[in-house]
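## retry 2 of 3
previous attempt timed out at serialization; input unchanged, resubmitting
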Amino acid sequence: MAQKNYTAERSDYMTPFSIYSTLLQIAQREIFDIDVCCSRKNIPAIHHFIDGRRDGLKEVWHGDCFLNPPFKTAVKWIRKAVEVVKDSDNTRVFAVIPADRLETKYYQECILKNKYCVFCFLPYKAGFIIPGQEDQPPKPSQKIMIAIFSKDAAVINYAWDFHNWFNTLSFLGREA
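## retry succeeded, writing output
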């Protein structure tokens, strides 16, 4: 399996408002139920599975979940998102993940060949917020994909055309 080596010295980058606020619009919510993978509170959520205190990979995910995993371990988080949504009728996972892994087996299985996934490629490189430097603008550095795992992926995909979220097209995963 092809693998990209992410060399970031840290894994606690925070998600910019422009990304999570659009995901909240898609969810038609003001707040997520859970941020399943965070090192500090950054996005509006009822619960935050803070790294070091609660392991989001071992916790139960329910409702509308936000996921921005460390890119080095994204495969674990994406696989969990797929399983959680497959086993639930009311859980959705809104994920911010790297866009440069399409050739990998887990992207093929979990995103491209998953009818419960709607995804897009941001039309620009995204920058993330460095903890302690929240007053500085993020420096765009990474190609990002948004993946929404939901049993209602087809409905979300249809609505995407009307709302033009992220100013880009969305795609619906397809069963192999």
